[in-house]
Specification:
The complex is a heterodimer of chains A (368) and B (597). With 368 residues, chain A is an alpha/beta fold. Chain A contains 15 helices and seven strands. A three-stranded antiparallel beta sheet of chain B has the order 3-4-5. In chain B, strands 16-17-18 form a three-stranded antiparallel beta sheet. Chain B is of the alpha+beta class. Classes of the chains: A alpha/beta (368), B alpha+beta (597).
Chain lengths: 368, 597
Amino acid sequence: MSDTFYDLMRRQGISRRSFLKFCSLTAASLGLGEAGAQQIAKAMETKPRTPVIWIEGLECTCCSESFIRSAHPLVKDVVLSMLSLDYHMTLSAAAGEQLRANAHETIAKHKGNYILAVEGNPPLGEDGNYCIYYGKPFVDVLREYAKDAMAIVSWGSCASWGCVQAAKPNPTRATPVHKVITDKPIIKVPGCPPIAEVMTGVVTYILTFGRLPELDVQGRPKMFYGQRVHDKCYRRPHFDAGQFVERFDDEGARKGYCLYKVGCKGPTTYNACSATRWNEGLSFPIQSGHGCIGCSEDDFWDKGSFYDHLTTIRAPGLSNLGVEGTAERIGLTALGVAGAALAAHAAVSAVRQASSRGRNDRVSDVEK
Amino acid sequence: MATYQTQGFTLDNAGKRVVVDPICRIEGHLRIEVNVDKDNVIRNAVSTGTMWRGLEVILKGRDPRDAWAFVERICGVCTGVHALASVRAVEDALGIRIPKNANIIRNLMHATLYSQDHLVHFYHLHALDWVDVVSALKADPKVVSEIQQKISPWPMSSPAYFRDVQNRLKKFVESGQLGIFNNAYWGHPAYKLPPEVNLLATAHYLEALDFQKEIVKIQTIFGGKNPHPNWLVGGHPSPINVDGTGAIGAINMTSLNMVKDICDRTIEFIEQVYIPDLLAVAGYYKEWAKYGGGLASQNVLSYGDFPEKPGDYSNDSLWWPQGVILGGDLKKVHDVDLRAPDQVQEWVTHSWYKYAQEQNGLHPFDGVTEPSFVLGPATKGDRKEIKEIDEAAKYSWVKAPRWKGHAVEVGPLARYLVAYARGHKEIKEQVDSTLKALDVPITALFSTLGRTAARGLECALTARRMRYYHDQLVANIKAGDLATANVEKWEPSTWPAEAKGTAPVEAPRGALAHWVKIKGGRIDSYQAVVPTTWNAGPRDARNQIGAYEASLMNTPMAKPEQPLEILRTIHSFDPCLACATHVMSPEGEELVSVKVR
């Protein structure tokens, strides 16, 4: 018999009272009321640990490495008490035939009820033989395991968009998962890699609420990818004030000014880095002095140098106006919220003003 | 092929074929096939890398200052090593000298990776080859506590603690959902540890899983995130400000304090948990000092690392020395020159690529990679499903690198042998005292056990080295030096029309180097020869076998259908296949063109 999360907690010596308290706290931290707490308790009492098959195509294992960095919850608790990670290339004790049998067993026993997590992507060139599993093209294995899955989680930018191996000229025809599997719900969790707590946050959300998170039009959980790095960046006031790092290690860099002029892609990147931050909230690229390279965005490898000012993004000729247009377009199409477009507009307008007034001068009339 | 001799091994593929695909608990995709004789002893071994991504062609025409970010994505396990090799190679090409602080920060980040990567390898990628998790259920927690207190001052040592871990494990097993432990080799006759040591190691498997994420926070402080922190051509992106306005946004007193604290806790964990466990487990597996040596007793290569002087990779500057040992002669260590056309070369005779002249190897500055996925006539199966590979033909996505034509092993054991032969004081003392503690001769190093032991000993050194670099950084700041980046040659307009550069990194898994050619401010060609390419590579034009293949030879298997012995030896190298198989043409999109040197 499969065990429920609640059974497991009880058998680990956790009292019913503590269990309910845990549910209340969880509900509170998620901004839910007493009804939410009851919902969480019910979910945990009735569900066996959700089986997960985690496969890897063309990738670098940075997603798995990020996953094991999770502090809240600790990954050992995820693996021992929340999920049943039945197949994982990097963590499973079994290999070869034995590991393959694990996947078959999970598919047979939990038809329609397991999650297929995909790290990396299938190459379609050379009949799929740029990535071979058990002697077969990886894309065939992906299709086989996806067939009876409840849902698919596309970990990282490889599975979500294609990432580095799909950068021009994409010699292996590396292809994101949603272009190969078209009949299953797919949650994209982009980033190279995604933030650890975003990964475990998506997983625990599904387990807790018994449903997939709300997704944006591109298939990303809104709760983590609904805003730009720029929107929550602690250096934003320097951007608004026109105080920029002009060169690495200059006075502005040492004072923590905005990295926009040395290429920061925060204004066009949807991710939780500036709010959740990395490695238990310790830092994120901008905080450590380097601009955002936009690693959670589709095609980010092919949008010019990481050190180019954003004006080069699809803005031939009209640099400043171009940025504005681009930011506005991104705001409107990707987010579909007029307010965000307005914010982007305001931000870029501020830059335009700043650059017209000379460097590092304070701009007093920043648009709100 | 029936039988042939190479490098002192007799290969015979007549016996039963055993296929292990995928090899788990590694990075990337690796398939191993062996033939065993009637006594189940391995008489033929075939290592097949089963993925290829083509990163180097993607780099053609890009800005060389961006290259580190692309190549960093070669591997997320040994994260940062390719980025480091890239910024070093580009700086070599453009003649950029980085500030002292940047060199110290890079060394610190590199030592940090070593400590975390080796720790994760031992507990999460390798331990389950030696530790029977299910047997731990039978352990007496009181006895476990006594063992723990005898071998280490580590405070997590009470009977109650081990009872808790055992209870959690028991309930996990009873749930019927064994997750990552499902369908493994529990109860296999090759497991030798008593239940108490199994429980001890299982408890530390979980503790190490918690702790490894702390170590990498040093990379987060300086690089903004981990995996895949940020780097910079010309120095390091994180500025230093310990005094004035804005200090809170830079490397400052609080971040330096945190770095120091992490260094000290890392030293403590490695010395009080990892090393005592390694010695305790090794004591039960001394017979593994007889198996798995492969090429280690013959040819080993190390590029060395941790330069004291920025950009200087000579033995005067390096903490770990570079060198090559051939034929097991520890008295003569050869010098490595990455630019010498006759030293590092790659062959594709048995790899899924084409050269105009396949009997020749090519130096990376002249490297060519034209994929050619063709299966040999003796293959069982076809392109849709390969049942057994034909190693007489092309059989791997990994190339076969050679040093002056010799197949070599790289990695912790190779580094230790080179350092030992070069008379490195710290390493010599450490090796001698460990051999004494385990009561085994120096030849015991040439083995699976020796490789695993060398990695642990090295981890103890790198943990202490982290603290050394922290102290060095503080001292340098105290002396008034705040510079972290040299931007004099940041703008492409300051670069020569054409330039080429190369630089080594001694990565956790072994010798790594990148070669870059720059033309008109853009990358003209980019090549990387990677540790796992050296180790996992297939046969070459002379049918010499690679390090993985050699290491499996003549190992007896208890139950060939449960290939625990293969996992032990292959895991002792810590395979990283994404690294090994990214190689690509410098010709960019023209995958059909072939350049001949």
